[in-house]
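Subject: two folds for Thursday's group meeting

Dear M.,

Sorry for the delay on this. The cluster queue was jammed most of the week, so I only got both jobs back this morning. I'm pasting them in the order they finished. Each block is the input sequence followed by the predicted structure tokens. Could you check whether the formatting survives your parser before we put anything on slides? The first protein is the one we discussed after the seminar.
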Amino acid sequence: MRRLYISGLGFLLLFIVAGNVHAQSKYTLTGAVTDKANDSLLSGITVAITKDTTTRYTQTDKNGNFSFIALGAGHYIINISSIHYQEQTVRVLLDKDKNIRFRLESQFKLLNDVYVTARESKSMTSASVIDRAAMQLLQPSSFTDLLELLPGGRSRDPNLTAMNKMSLRETGSANDQRNTSALGTGFYVDGAPIITNANIQTTAGFTVSDPNASRNSVNKGVDMRSISTDQIEKVEIIRGIPSVEYGDITSGAVMITRKKGKMPYSARIKADGFSKLYSIGKGFANKRNDFFTNIDIDYLDAKANPTNSYSNYKRITTSLRTEKIWRKAFGNIEWMNSIDYGRNIDNERTDPDNSFALTDKYVSYFNSYDYATRLKLQLPKNSFFKTVELSGKVNYQQDKIDIKKWMQPSTATVLINTTEPGIHDVGFLIAGYTGHMIVDGKPLNVFVKANSVAGYFLGAVKNNLKIGTDFSYSKNLGKGQVYDLNFPMGVAAGSKVSASTRPRAFDTIPAMQQLAAYIENTATWRTGDHVLSLETGLRAFTLLNLSNRFKLANKVLFNPRVNARWQLPALQLNKKPLLITIGGGYGVLSKTPTLDMLYPPLDYTDIIQLNYYHNNPAFRTANVITYIVDKTNYAIGIAKNIKQELSADFSYGGNRLTITYFNEVLNSGFRTSSRYIALDYKRYNNTSINADTLTQKPAVDAFTYTPAREYFAYGTPSNGSKQVKRGFEYQFTSRRITGINTRFTLNGAWFKTRHADSQKSYSVISSNVVTDGKIRQYLGIYEDNVGTYYEQLNTNLTVDSYLPSLGINIAASFQNLWYTANQSLYKSGTPLQYVDIDGNVHEYTEADKTHPHLQALNIIYNNTAFKKYKVPVDLNINLKVSKSFSKNRFVVSMFANRIATYKPNYTNENGAYIIRSGLSTPYFGMEMNINF
């Protein structure tokens, strides 16, 4: 035991001595620093090594080497930094002499990847990509501001108290009868669509002056005011022919990818002349469990203009997003969830200093609740199926319009409050009252989708196969327009016909259901130095839950789409490769009618037959006949747009030029077409009784009358709109010039857009034409092209300098609209046929042009109406600057639009001298971003 004890003591003593010797050992750390791109050795690079609170510095020698000697054992942090290269930090355990090699990525390469404008995608079709850096310098208030970056786009002052719709590749001002382009632009947030088919939130026809008119988004697509940009990481706007995966669209698709993963706390505060915006966000990561959470919230308060505080718009959006990843032997499983809430408030009230009608107000509340989920299985590379994905989204909205208005009829106005057809004795509106109407809308949209992607080879051809199906359900659960029929918001004083609307409950409208399936194959073939890619796809869809009376019932419709790309062999110019890719595409894109188009409200025609107003209220009497017309157009079909495009892409020495020619023809766009119906009524003669001898309220039968019949109009949804888009888009992006870190981006477009009617039009003869004592006895049928050509050519030159050593980013844009033009389509004014009051159709002849009654149907136009009117150059210069502090923790930005303008006066086609000086004023704003 004693011997064992001495041995153990000796071993312990030896261990202590050895440990002490180890603790006192000194080591040497050596290394080299090279350029990652070409492995060249870098001299003059600062190397710092830190342990605890002690830091030592050195620099690499001419051979790129560095060394630290006499270092104690333990953990060290090594930091490599240079203004020309990206900073690199590593953690090292030093328990022996070590040699480490660092490969740095050029800062200029990083700078060359920073874009402050939209860049052209390298996908199969024309698309613009806008990333976070571009959005940060642009300083947007809503998604609308991003359109400035597209080819053909231009900066505009925000208009946040009106509906903001998107129209791709389009110029001119399409009226409310030609909104198919905006309605047919699809918005997808993290792969889930924003569906607007159940939006019926309108006050049209219910008020004398409609305060909701500029804000009305029914049948106009997505209101871009409601989309905050602070949650967005990247946007891809597909201007060309999208994959068949995306349907129920005619124009293009907007793909929004939101931030995800670990991120610092970020806050943004923006102010300009129209609005104030506040946002905050954070990304959390539990890397051990592969679980990520992102939270964002923003608040926007905007006014119609800085001097008007009585018309404003407020927006609150918040989002909670999670992502969980399971890493298994058979593949990775990703589960993403998001919960979103948005609230928009449009508010308009009367200035008490300008009006006695202190009750007048307009408030619109929009609450949106979203839940979206996506489960994705990522399979091994050697599997036939690469990914399998299931996703779904539920969106519920609470829309409410609340209008109050003081109503004061100037003359005796008949009160019509019947909802049944036939003849009715009615009363009169009181002299003054407060009208109050609520429009209650509750759209519910459900979307589910299954998608899979497979990969396989056929000989030397690599193929990616996409197969999927999706289903959407849209229903409005609201009560619709709610008001007291005895106190209407719309009165037609002195008119023979009253308003044609009555309240209807939205929840009585059937749900809209659409089922679709698609298949698409992308084949890539490499032969020599050539690379050929061909993407072919077919989408089939049908509307469910439709009455058999509809033309669309039980029909399966198809959208074929093809995109091709040919990458030519590289040409060596000055020892640099010139890469050329040419491509083209053909596609059919379709949009189904919305709920409002499939099930329009009933049309009420109330003809006032008798309006006998006596000084004694007890003797007053009135009589109307009410006709109710079902405006449903069972023949309505889809809006189908045929798109074609050709493109060329040139890349050389970091510079890139893309040119795209496109042609789009939409012959079946949606609009409201006028229809006429001949109705019978009686014209009672007020003077046929003696007012002085009345002792009681007179009966209607006491009055004599004359039978009458005339045409009355109503509107019905139809495929009567035509839109033809033609033009080319171009974008040149230079490499970022070293030394000054500056990039030049030149983009623009030539657009020519034709808006027209695609169906015969009907027009009633002027009420000034009296036929045998009767009016509106004839209809003219015309095939004239009612519409307008619009044209524009623009160029935007953006010069941006990115100076990371100073933390400054500067971008100056020169936005030149070379010209705009418009021309009304020629109309002969002569009808092909006319219809008499009995419904008989007659050919319109030369003799009819001199007929005392029918000649009024032949409309004489002045030739000046069809001249092409052209407006010359309009140049704006804009400036955007951002400055970062404390390693980008604080970024202060400002913008100034129209700091200089050039808009020369000109003489128009009619000889009038147009003065344009002083029409443009600068628009300023600034913001601060904080990351911590």
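Second protein, same layout:
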Amino acid sequence: MSATRNGTHESSDVLSTRSLSEISEVETVRLSVDLVSASRKNLGLLRTVSESPWLHERATILEAIRRYDELWMPLISDLMEGSSPPMVLPPLDVEWVWFCHTLNPVSYRKYCENRFSKLIGKPAIFYKENEEYALMRCEELWMKRYPNESFENEVDINSSNMQDLHAAQDHEDLLNEVDKQRHVYSKFSWPYMSEIVYLIAARQRYKGFLYVLQRFADDCSSRLLPSLDILLMWVTHQSYPTVYAEDLKEMEGDMGKIVGLWETVKSNEVEETKKLWERAFDQPYVKAGGAIEFGGVASIVKPPVYWEVSDTDVNTKYKSLLPRFLLEVCVFVRLNSRMKTVQQERQHNFLRLQIVRCHRELKIDKPISSFSSDTWKKVAHLYCEFGTKGLMLEVRKHGGGCFKTSKLEDSKTFLWNDLLRAPSLTLETHLDDKQARAVASITPPAQAPYLLKCVPDKVTDDSGAMVSDVILRMNNYKPQEGRWLSRTILDHAGRECFVVRMRVAGGFWRRGGETPSAVKWEDRIIEIREGCWSYVAGSIGRAPEKIVGTATPREPPEHWQAAWCFSTGDELLISWESSTSMSDLNFCLRNQKSSESLVKLLKGKKMQYRARKITSKRKEHEKRENTEEIDEEDEDEEGFLTLVRFTEDNPIGRPTALLNWKLLIVELLPEEDAVFVLLLCISILRSISEMRKEDVGNLLIRRRLKEAKLGARDWGSVILHPSSFSSTISSPYLQPWYWNAKSVIAPDGGDTVTKQPAVSHSPVEGGDKLYKKGIMA
């Protein structure tokens, strides 16, 4: 297969081998339900249940079970015509109990046959309009049959009485099923899982899994373990009981050889599954988005990034801010059997993995001798931005002499666009004159959090033009009025997307005279302009005209030391007890325009951002991972704050942004407003600079510092999965930025915090006293 990029022809040299797509319907199970559409619907249900805390209250669950058992099942049983379920859907609480019950096919069948003498099926309703109609139709039938029973679950969640106790005893089995599935969404909550191409690939692998079970059932010495993508399809298949029973009636005895959703897994079961899969398809069993998990919530391995489903992106209104997309990548290598004859000859060869575009410093090297002809071995497990284009595998030979050089022997490329079109999102290629084979797999790209950082820039005047002789000449030597500290906001790819300006002085400047005068604290407003600089000569330019956000300092109320009013309608209050410590800082956010949601700023890296490097120190604290005091002092010193939004539907709170006001770097979910988070960052830094009477975050730098060369080590472009960490790969640029923020944000490898750049400023910009007066005098 070949690919075209930038008008050139690049060959991937992809092998044409037997794939899962070549399995015929005769060879494997015929699936009678559209598992792609059905799994998307189930993912929506699971997410809704996960985000509805009231559905997990004991009183609610008991009432839902009663309604399911006494009302819903008799109703749908009477509505069934033969074996076809009616096109109606129950209310959410009943649908959740029904879903949980079907995941135990043996128990569900026994329940149905004992009560109704037939198996009750579920209607295949996958489109939103049809779902709404089916729900309304159900409500009509429900109210007609049960006029004294509410269609919605209206139980008092605070109630607890003997009736609940009896209900729990009467429906103990159902209660256990619902309780067991409470955290099922945590397994399937990855953003890429609802993408059609992922689900199509997962359905094909599920058919392959059933094919392996059919073909090797008698040879299995242990149970088979479904990977995550196959598990999603299996769970979805089970949730349609009549279809599941009919499709697998000839395999009913073999289905007990599959490890269940929450069952404990033994290592021999993992190895057995991998071995039989490789025997059937000569492909690695594990793939991107198809990891093997060992059962239980505690064993779920989260990626080293906070990457969740976001229904909306409120930042599409900012045309200069481009979304960021991530995909998961797995690479496996296997030697050909005849490689043993030339092992000695190629013992100095090694495999190098690099990225096609971005992060040129990334080089993951593995010796060829570490691979085997007996099984596939994982080379790398990565999370890459879609803009990296693809990955390159190079076979290199160590050079002789005293220099650490290597000679390129072979090179192959996997492009993301090629992989997205491939069956099961997987491609294979030959390496090193067909002495080895490599397989790469990916997940579809899914939108990831935005990454933004502020970098210093030149001082500007009231109009937004940089204060410079160049601008002065262009304006026919008309004096430039006002002084504003300026910062440029760069996104994950180093693109300019906003310009931040902070007013510090009024008055005029012209060549050879008139020094501007500092303005009062309450006049030192902050504004954010959308877009990039309009450069007129080298690095001299004008800020974009469109203002998208402002922050105005005001007189703080009693017990608070600083207050800011944002154009978003939010108000930020800051208090501190000591000017020498930042551990006693307190923040309050309130919105004058909306009372629907509550927003809080929590000090440190909290909730989903608490993920840390796997170190001995972390292991000591894992048992206390919910304790807020862990590393709190260290986190506060680093300037980290977690923005959490609370709603009526989510009283626990959802973290939507992580910001470091000291380094002026932020990460935010698409559902969080980028301008609001940036205003928070700048306002906090300016207030704390006032408190400390010092330049805490290098606000006084008035020159663009030297940045790392674009494409050399782009932060966030490639992140290693913890399984790929090694002592030889310790770059902070291959880890989440907040694990080592100082190194990531440092310009040209320096440290912005400990090394204050020695920069001299021209009289044009004014001395430091001008900017300190009224704020740090």
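Two things I noticed about the second structure. Residues 1-18, 296-300, 613-633, 749-757 have pLDDT under 50 and may be disordered. The CA atoms of residues 201 and 424 lie 4 Å apart.

Cheers,
T.
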